[in-house]
Write a structure and sequence with these properties.
The protein is α/β, with parallel strands linked by helices. The chain has 9 helices and 10 strands. The chain is globular and about 50 Å long.
């Protein structure tokens, strides 16, 4: 069974179509990246899958279940999203315990205290963080909480929207290693949006290059690592990233 199937997907904001004609299949257990310049439609695709961009046509399926345009609890149990800004995605007046317990309450799941403790441990946070507020945590700790919250319902698919770009460079590697470990331990499927091609090389199996709302090329990560992308725009994107890395290295 495929984890995610997108067929003839068009997504609009009002009268403006921002994604058009996207066809994509992601296998269960795969880690897949969407890359491309800002405004290419990457995050919009994640939002549509998560139910946050309701104005779409075509077909979206998660683990063989077609997604509806409204609230879809069955899909939510299997597919959760981690946002770019861990501070903005956590309620500033709710404790970490409250943030992690909320998905369980919404879906009527019990043993909340035990589940919260187990998930904090899974993401590498001590139990002393449980009753703190987001402002009392570092950026990396907040992103660990955001990942824990996404995993509370034991989903099989995680949508990752630039999960390390708002973090200090010293912390980014820790979060990437955590994501890699969690994928292995929990058999997760990842759909990652990022500008950072080295992150794709580290975390992903395949990638799709997007431009102007459409997919330009789908490639294996080995093609990326060895500079064997086919389309001219894909090669330009790779060259620009390598140039930026040299400039900051």
């Amino acid at each position: 069974m495929n984890a995610i199937d997108l067929k003839n997907l068009d997504i609009s904001y009002g009268d403006t179509k921002v994604v058009h004609g996207v066809n994509l299949t992601i296998a269960e257990g795969e880690s897949f990246a969407l890359v491309g310049e800002s405004g290419s439609g990457k995050s919009t695709i994640l939002r549509a899958i998560a139910g946050l961009a309701p104005d779409w046509t075509g077909d979206i399926s998660v683990l063989g279940r077609a997604r509806s345009h409204g609230v879809d609890r069955a899909v939510a149990r299997q597919c959760q999203m981690v946002f770019q800004d861990p501070y903005g995605s956590l309620h500033p007046r709710k404790t970490i315990d409250s943030a992690l317990s909320e998905p369980l309450a919404i879906h009527g799941l019990g043993n909340r205290g035990e589940r919260v403790e187990a998930m904090l441990k899974a993401v590498g946070l001590d139990q002393r963080f449980r009753f703190r507020f987001p402002h009392q945590l570092s950026g990396g700790q907040r992103q660990r909480v955001a990942i824990a919250r996404a995993l509370m319902l034991e989903p099989k698919v995680l949508l990752l929207d630039e999960p390390t770009s708002a973090l200090d460079v010293s912390v980014q590697a820790e979060i990437l290693n955590l994501l890699k470990r969690l994928r292995r331990e929990q058999g997760l499927t990842y759909l990652l949006v990022t500008h950072n091609l080295p992150v794709v090389s580290f975390l992903c199996d395949r990638l799709a290059v997007m431009r102007h709302g459409g997919i330009v090329e789908v490639a294996d990560v080995e093609q990326l690592k060895h500079g064997r992308l086919v389309e001219a725009y894909s090669r330009e994107l790779l060259a620009a990233t390598e140039g930026a890395n040299r400039a900051t290295g």
